[in-house]
Amino acid sequence: SKGPYAHYMLKEVDEQPSVMRRISKNYIREDGSINVDPEMLKEINKADRLYIVAAGTSYHAGLVGKNIFETLADVPVDVELGSEFGYHMPKLSQHPFFIFLSQSGETADSRQVLVKINEMNLPSLTMTNVANSTLSRESNYTMELLAGPEIAVASTKSYTSQIAVEAVLAKALGELKGVQAAKDLDLKEQLAIAANGIQTIVDEKDYIKQLSADYLDGQDHAFYIGRGIDYALSLEAALKLKEISYIHAEGFAAGELKHGTIALIEKGTPVFAYINDGVGASHTRGNIQEVEARGAHVLVIANEKYAKPGDQIIIPEIDEMISPIVSVVPAQLFSYYASLARGNDVDKPRNLAKSVTVE
Ligand code: M6R
User: Fold this and answer.
1) Protein residue whose Cα sits closest to atom 4 of ligand 1
2) Out of 80-84, 121-125, 257-261, which region has the weakest mean confidence (pLDDT)?
3) Distance from the CA of 165 to the center of ligand 1, in angstroms?
4) pTM higher than 0.90, yes or no?
5) DSSP annotation of 91
């Protein structure tokens, strides 16, 4: 039930700190070692490339995961949309391993890929919130997201749990391979930092609601920009806004603005800029100046490490790789309040179903 909440979405946003703690408790032992199926790890360790297949928000979690696996497990990763990949399959590597990301475990676009790779006898794992789902049953291995039932159509806690579970697997694989970055990462500590960081943001709802009104009331278009990890995050932030507020939103690699999109910036256009990626931080600051010079109404969401006076939202310090777990939360709340302000059905937006079981 929704309990005291007006909408499932808000309840599910608020549950994210406890979901992080649950993932930590279930997958990381007291001594910091990772508790995952050793057989599965051995199988993944044979792979020369991982293929992450997903749709929508899960695809965006896959884009964040690519960087995590490449850094911690030193393995190349491709992230693919199920709806594209199944019918336009690229030349695969010699020893591919497939990871299906799906909250519901029922997404038909991803399943048709699984059917094909099963015919090819290729190994796979499903990361899902629904243990006995179709994708879970039809792949070789399953890792549960442990997010608890997600009822609102807009995915929130399943996105953050997917990133956390990807980090769990990447660390385990990296340690097996002896990768230093995996040994160095204290994931138990990082997930605790993530839980506290989310809590700090959800405790500021009145402020975020006010920002949402200041930036989005009466607007038909909005942009999210960022670089690196913040680019992947911008795609998810924009999707959240589109699907429940019906505001046209785009996520862009900040450096791409000048290659076309900046033509859309007018006086008052809302631009949400993410600065959690250290390498890209100063360049994104430059892009902020460029859009401000053209009249954009810029809101900055910056990591404590890179924050400057005047930034509207500060994200507590966290390992950059998994920082979207925290920095997505303001975007989830902006879209919630914008949807509410427009009188939309927040939990059941028009034209959408929770689980898309047709191709
Ligand atoms: O159940 P899945 O994770 O496979 O669903 C994939 C997408 O349909 C889903 O993430 C969709 O994009 C959500 N409505 C986003 O909030």
Assistant:
1) 102
2) 257-261
3) 17
4) yes
5) P
